[in-house]
């Protein structure tokens, strides 16, 4: 089941595998409801996902809200994450609209989607991330979010936030897979008790098919009678991360939440990392990070 958890710095338990509604589900038209996504979120909940990840940027919050309502899952059984970026200037008002779209009174986790507030490509809001963080902290006292965190932050951005924070970010949601090991950033987060949420964990199957990692993952899949997808999600979670994945296919959703009944050895975890070392794939925010 997906509801094995990681405990973050404020004591909250975050389910280890999340169903993401960005990437393949991203919508440029906010007005049309995507019925396929509503069905898929319901499917994911039925398969055992108890953690759903969305964002202002994805335009999928209304679908998530509808699916949660239709699924009948109790609010206290679900861990709900959303994010903000382009509307950071009007954070408090936008957050209320997001809650309305999600049809909930609170979210479990609210993230600043990116530190690149001046990104042209992503229509950044401008401004100062330290000030935005102070405003995020106030949302916790309002009770409208239980925890706050960040996404796509590098060490220098985390240092800025930590220099003024009274509430530390509980997570940093980053692109993390064997082809993007980011060992310095991971160490910095570990040292500061900031948990990693790993998005795009299946990159060795989606963007680097036939690569060195896939060969190792296939071999381990045979050993444990698990699919390559399950081995990669297990790698992420045993490295300490919450894995944020997605699929439109019921079988893959069921596989994704069925990873609690086996353990990779430390040598096997290292073998997967070693196979990815030396090749770098970064799919998101790459233009901003290299600037
Ligand atoms: N914070 C950020 O900036 C940020 C950025 C990117 C993503 N995210 C979050 O992370 C979530 C997941 O990101 P992701 O989609 O990149 O994650 P992923 O888990 O690496 O990839 C999911 C995709 O892999 C495909 N897939 C699964 N098994 C496969 C296989 N064996 N062979 C080939 N393809 C396979 C799925 O397609 P099928 O539908 O065919 O199964 C699905 O489209 C997003 O939805 C979003 O919530 C956050």
UniProtKB/TrEMBL annotation:
| Sites where the protein binds substrate | 113
Question: Can you tell me which residues form the catalytic site?
Answer: 58
Alphabetized UniProt keyword annotations: NADP, Oxidoreductase
This entry's Gene Ontology molecular function terms read: oxidoreductase activity, acting on NAD(P)H as acceptor; oxidoreductase activity, acting on the CH-OH group of donors, NAD or NADP as acceptor
Domain NADP-dependent oxidoreductase residues, every copy: 21-274
Instruction: State the InterPro entries in the record.
Output: AKR (IPR020471), AKR3C2/3 (IPR044494), Aldo/ket_reductase_CS (IPR018170), NAD(P)_OxRdtase_dom_sf (IPR036812), NADP_OxRdtase_dom (IPR023210)
Q: Where is this site: Lowers pKa of active site Tyr?
A: 83
Q: Which Pfam families match?
A: Aldo_ket_red
Source superkingdom: Eukaryota
Protein family membership: Belongs to the aldo/keto reductase family.
Record-given protein name? NADP-dependent oxidoreductase domain-containing protein
This protein's species is Acrasis kona
